[in-house]
Amino acid sequence: MQRILIICLLICCAQLNAQKTDKKLQQKISRLIQGFNGDIGVYVHDLKKNKIAVINADSIFPTASMVKVPILVGIMDKIGKKELDYHQTLTYKDSLLYEGVDILGSFKNNEKIELSKVIMLMLNTSDNTASLWLQSLAGTGTRINQIMDSLGFKDTRVNSRTPGREANRTQYGWGQTTPREMAALFERIAGKQLLNDSASEKMLKLLGRNYWDEEGLSAIPAGIFVASKNGAVNASRSEVIYVNGGGARYVFCICTKNNKDQSWGVTNEAWVLTRKLSGLLWDRYK
């Protein structure tokens, strides 16, 4: 594990040293987000030219459902160690229910479901009952946080149901991250640099299927490969997207918190801004 961490840190250092700021893009993004009624952070990385644009990219934000990416990493680590099997059969229990409108929560006690389908529900429909079940199967939030730390992610953490992180949960909710780190997670998955080649490839495929496609994803044409995860609670809306196709290859993450507009319609200020940012990036890179 120590050797893997050293390799990861060396890769990150080499990439950081070569990166240059796209000043024109950064100015455009600054103008785009000017006047936003809340706190906002943005990280953009053009993977073809290795240029970045950053605004509050190292500030910590709530993950909301983006926490399901670290949970996925925890599950894939267990699968890689043969402690879980991707196609093993699980037994649902009523005690797993997280009240809401999730699909898994409609299951009957003792109903069977394959682990792969629970993962699908967590990522594709952002099913919270599935996600909390997988968090426990991954070996608790503490173990997931240890994996994040070993991979060089110092700010990306699971807070909910994780001993010692009660204060963080009060401040940030289920999980926390920075725009830079969440984007870097996707970048390393896409580059087959997370856990191992096969695990990275599987995670990229899984993250390429998102039911919630009406915000940042809506600005990217069908036929272009995208991997994504979004998260939303009342005062925080965030999204991370990796794009590859049509001449473009880039990753970006937008995080918000303390949002004045806490509505849930398409006109929500943070969601409108996310669509505009995604459109700006696609038009620039395609």
Automatic annotation (TrEMBL):
<comment type="similarity">
    <text>Belongs to the class-A beta-lactamase family.</text>
</comment>
<dbReference type="InterPro" id="IPR012338">
    <property type="entry name" value="Beta-lactam/transpept-like"/>
</dbReference>
<feature type="domain" description="Beta-lactamase class A catalytic">
    <location>
        <begin position="41"/>
        <end position="256"/>
    </location>
</feature>
<dbReference type="GO" id="GO:0046677">
    <property type="term" value="P:response to antibiotic"/>
</dbReference>
<dbReference type="InterPro" id="IPR000871">
    <property type="entry name" value="Beta-lactam_class-A"/>
</dbReference>
<dbReference type="GO" id="GO:0030655">
    <property type="term" value="P:beta-lactam antibiotic catabolic process"/>
</dbReference>
<dbReference type="Pfam" id="PF13354">
    <property type="entry name" value="Beta-lactamase2"/>
</dbReference>
<dbReference type="GO" id="GO:0008800">
    <property type="term" value="F:beta-lactamase activity"/>
</dbReference>
<protein>
    <recommendedName>
        <fullName>beta-lactamase</fullName>
        <ecNumber>3.5.2.6</ecNumber>
    </recommendedName>
</protein>
<dbReference type="InterPro" id="IPR045155">
    <property type="entry name" value="Beta-lactam_cat"/>
</dbReference>
